[in-house]
TrEMBL record:
<feature type="domain" description="N-acetyltransferase">
    <location>
        <begin position="4"/>
        <end position="173"/>
    </location>
</feature>
<dbReference type="InterPro" id="IPR000182">
    <property type="entry name" value="GNAT_dom"/>
</dbReference>
<dbReference type="InterPro" id="IPR016181">
    <property type="entry name" value="Acyl_CoA_acyltransferase"/>
</dbReference>
<protein>
    <submittedName>
        <fullName>Acyl-CoA N-acyltransferase</fullName>
    </submittedName>
</protein>
<dbReference type="Pfam" id="PF13673">
    <property type="entry name" value="Acetyltransf_10"/>
</dbReference>
<dbReference type="GO" id="GO:0016747">
    <property type="term" value="F:acyltransferase activity, transferring groups other than amino-acyl groups"/>
</dbReference>
Amino acid sequence: MSDISLVPATSTELIASCIAIRKTVFVQDQGYIHLDEDNRPEDAAALHFLLASSSQDPDASARFMGTVRLAALPLPVSPTLNPDPNTKTYILSRFALLPPFRRGGNGAKFLGLLEHWVLQHTSQDELGSRVVAVELEAQEGSYGFYERLGYVRQSGEYVKDGKPHVRMRKELVME
């Protein structure tokens, strides 16, 4: 696989690409009944990213491999999330990779790029410590993936949108 990069979805067209990937992954592949179209209150504070292949593939549809939504607290928080008030916390959600890109370490690379972005875009002046946290709600079947990447379970299993989830957290240390 060629090099990959994190692309901020800063235009209507790029947000449409995020939504199209989510529809493929969450509705078509995983059977969710509805698609969250990013119209909830916390979405105003959220950033959206695409994982892009830097290959020179002439097929433009193959350029984007996945998407994720990232929001820094404070925002209206899910009752399952319990952020530490002394640590800058980001909530990662809607992490999705298209089926052809789910092997070869692309998910780990995507999260690594996102974690690097978080560290690069958090000022130490904002922090009471040098720790920045990333929290997420992992779906059943993906727990091991996140644990291998250093995320730690913060809750027991609960049902969200009809599927089992657990809350997970990873602390990143600023240099």
